[in-house]
From TrEMBL:
Pfam families: Glyco_transf_29. Its main location: membrane. Keywords: Glycoprotein, Glycosyltransferase, Membrane, Transferase, Transmembrane, Transmembrane helix. Its EC number is 2.4.-.-. It is found in: Endomembrane system; Membrane. It is a single-pass membrane protein. One of its GO terms (molecular function) is sialyltransferase activity. The keyword Transmembrane applies. It is an enzyme of class 2 (transferase). One of its GO terms (cellular component) is endomembrane system. This is Glycosyltransferase family 29 protein. InterPro entries: Glyco_trans_29, GT29-like_sf.
Length: 201
């Protein structure tokens, strides 16, 4: 059975390294904060990068993704948020907070971190609005689905069959403001209860 493992950035207390490194496809996020612990193995086929607001600007300005020692092994880069407001530069933060939250830095992330040779996937607007419907977000809104939820929605649509096992770990449904964590937790738990994923907390 084809096995996909999706690893969030929460602290990990159990050793999942064998599970992760034996998987067919492993997806991590941003700077993969729990990677260094060794408890989530070393495999990383896909790196899903928040392309808007503070994370997107930080990745561009400080080239933090380029410095990840596992980046050479990453095959695909996913950008989860399909917004039309493309950043013109990354040195100065936009004064308008609402605009900043939806400013797309993907162009600069790719250039500054030398990622253009990777396979690049932009999750589309249809998926974004489906995720918003799941989470009871009516756009325009200050809330958007998290990168983790967007990636999981994409994986379920692309790979969600009986011949594929999807394991999710490292998610605590807490973090930066601007994401509906309570709603995301309910939806992901519902996916687990329906047998669509295996959720390891």
């Amino acid at each position: 059975m084809y096995h996909i493992v999706v690893i969030g950035n929460a602290d990990i207390n159990s050793d999942h390294s064998k599970l992760v490194d034996s998987a067919d496809l492993v997806i991590r996020f941003n700077e993969a904060r729990n990677y260094a612990s060794g408890l989530t193995g070393h495999k990383c086929d896909v790196l899903c990068l928040a392309n808007t607001s503070h994370p997107g600007r930080t990745f561009s300005k400080y080239k933090t993704i380029k410095k990840l020692h596992f980046i050479k092994d990453v095959i695909d880069i996913w950008f989860p948020h399909p917004f039309d407001c493309t950043a013109k530069q990354f040195w100065l933060k936009p004064f308008n907070k609402k605009k900043f939250k939806k400013t797309d830095y993907s162009k600069f992330i790719l250039k500054e971190n030398e990622l253009k040779q990777k396979n690049i996937l932009f999750l589309n607007e249809d998926l974004f609005f489906e995720a918003c419907m799941d989470l009871n977000i009516i756009q325009p809104s200050n809330l958007i689905p998290s990168s983790g939820y967007m990636a999981l929605k994409y994986i379920l649509k692309q790979y969600g069959t009986a011949s594929v096992k999807i394991t999710v770990l490292g998610f605590t449904f807490t973090g930066a403001d601007g994401h509906p964590w309570h709603e995301e937790k309910k939806c992901v738990q519902a996916f687990s209860q329906a047998g669509l994923i295996t959720l390891l907390l």
